[in-house]
Amino acid sequence: MFPIVSKRPLNEAGTVLEYVIKAPLVAKKCLPGQFIVLRLDENGERVPLTIADYDREAGTVTIMVQPVGQTTRMLELMEVGDSLADFVGPMGKPTQIGGQKRVCVVGGGVGCAIGYPVCKGFYEAGIEVDMVAGFRSKDIVILEDEMRAHSTNLYICTDDGSYGEKCFGNAKLEELIKSGREYDEVFIIGPLKMMKFTALTTKPYGIKTICSLCPIMIDASGMCGGCRLTVGGETKFACVDGPDFDGHLVDFDSAMRRGAMYKAQEKAAVARREEHCNLYKMEVK
Ligand code: FES
Q: Which pTM was predicted?
């Protein structure tokens, strides 16, 4: 069993929660960009989540969760002292850190929870990092202090202008590129649509662009095909070939269609759960 050591909301709106989990074997080996697969109980759904941070000495791993599906909403009800049945990892290939002089990490919304450890990994390796963090509005901004402490420059953007600059992350990135900022690489993490348009932004400039993709996964070991993506015309499995891929080669449109395939089932699962649990009253979006 894997106990929850701490739990806290990461923004005013409480839309993203941080959990620190005691998992010494995962903490011993994990690297930025890798993920874990958890199950709440032995009959539970397998949910892949990117490792947001780790403490090898304490034997803990940090994950960040946006409660939107059935399992993540059940996880939201768990508290410090409760335990997860499974916490398997580290899975996937680590982000390639090294050899770059200056990079830009662009995070969109809760994607900043994944962008942050990558940003920190670059920064701690002595690489200059511009972090562009985009959010819809001020109340859902996460990890501002952490990103600021582990980047050369932090640029916060909000769609509605309620905090930072009023623009989208890809517009800020383009402004930086046009101002003469030279990047060896741009790393993008966020909703698929945001990654698609940010990758399109870097393409005319010929900047190496990496996107982190975490689609629906089942076995997370390359056997079921659930996480398949089309990259450069070839089928790839995010769980074993990724999660990082060349953003100029990913077929984002097919990834978006696959991502929407199970929405009806997810909604039905949440509705079934609501019937049986008084604590479970949140509306599915
Ligand atoms: Fe089954 Fe990746 S989750 S192949």
A: 0.87
